[in-house]
Write a structure and sequence with these properties.
It is a single chain. Strand 3, helix 3 and strand 4 form a beta-alpha-beta unit. This protein folds into two domains: 119 residues, 2-Layer Sandwich (Ribulose 1,5 Bisphosphate Carboxylase/Oxygenase), CATH 3.30.190.20; 83 residues, Ribosomal protein L1/L10, domain II (Rossmann fold, 3-Layer(aba) Sandwich). It has eight helices and nine strands. It has a four-stranded antiparallel β-sheet with strand order 7-1-8-9, covered by helices on one side. Strands 4-3-5 form a three-stranded parallel β-sheet, with helices on both faces. Strands 2-6 form a two-stranded antiparallel sheet. By secondary structure, it is an alpha/beta fold. It is 29% helix and 21% strand. The chain is globular, with a radius of gyration of 20 Å.
């Protein structure tokens, strides 16, 4: 049997089963971010998706936190040939027209986000089977189909993040890194929880946010005692 590291044993002693306030949770999470890597501070939330009518609710939208969470994306832009150089100048890591379509078609998806101009959407439709399962299909509601490439690229570079729940109502979001101040983490947390409450459909009765956990990449998890 593989031996547990000294760090792991110390973390186990820090685990707390009862709910904690946000203030105490952040203190404990930051205290247990003891690995050498720049750990991410993450939320894991379960929402109520059971509607009184119309089937289960599915949340898929974008949110821009007050403080960018530090996660960096490799952004590709699919656009008309005459816009390729412009896209690169304003921050796209990859930009192309037919050549990028060919790369995607061959399965080369060396990017994290794909922005597409409206004029290219008709050409990308047949690639939905490749992009869809990876969550890379451009979507106007998510800000990834636009003629304003500067705004779309800037938004993704400065903290616009997509959120969506799984079939069990779970969703996850990074609210920062361990180097973030406690105040920034609190502001991002409160902003997102308030945002999430506003997304509750009228067809869902009762409590919308069932539980919230705060954790770090290599640390322990805390159950937040209040959703307010």
């Amino acid at each position: 049997m593989k031996k547990k590291s000294k760090r792991f044993k110390l973390l186990e002693k820090k685990k707390i089963k009862e709910r904690l306030s946000l203030d105490k949770s952040i203190d404990l999470i930051k205290e247990t971010c003891t690995s050498k890597m720049e750990e991410s501070i993450d939320l894991s939330i379960r929402i109520n998706t059971k509607q009184s009518k119309g089937g289960d609710f599915n949340l898929r939208t974008v949110v821009k936190l007050p403080h960018p969470n530090g996660k960096k994306f490799k952004i590709a832009v699919l656009c008309e040939q005459e816009k390729v150089e412009e896209a690169k100048k304003i921050g796209a890591d990859i930009a192309g027209s037919q050549e990028l379509l060919d790369q995607i078609s061959s399965g080369k998806l060396n990017f994290d986000k794909l922005i597409c101009t409206p004029g290219m959407m008709s050409k990308i439709g047949k690639l939905g089977k490749i992009l869809g399962p990876k969550g890379l299909m451009p979507n106007p509601k998510l800000g990834t189909v636009s003629n304003d490439l500067k705004k779309s690229i800037t938004d993704l570079k400065t903290g616009l993040v997509e959120i969506k729940n799984d079939k069990d109502g779970n969703l996850a979001l990074s609210i920062g890194r361990k180097k973030f101040s406690k105040e920034k983490l609190q502001e991002n947390y409160n902003f997102f929880v308030d945002f999430l409450k506003k997304e509750k459909p009228e067809n869902i009765k009762g409590e919308f946010i069932k539980n919230i956990f705060l954790t770090s990449t290599m640390g322990i998890s805390c159950k937040i005692g209040s959703k307010n």
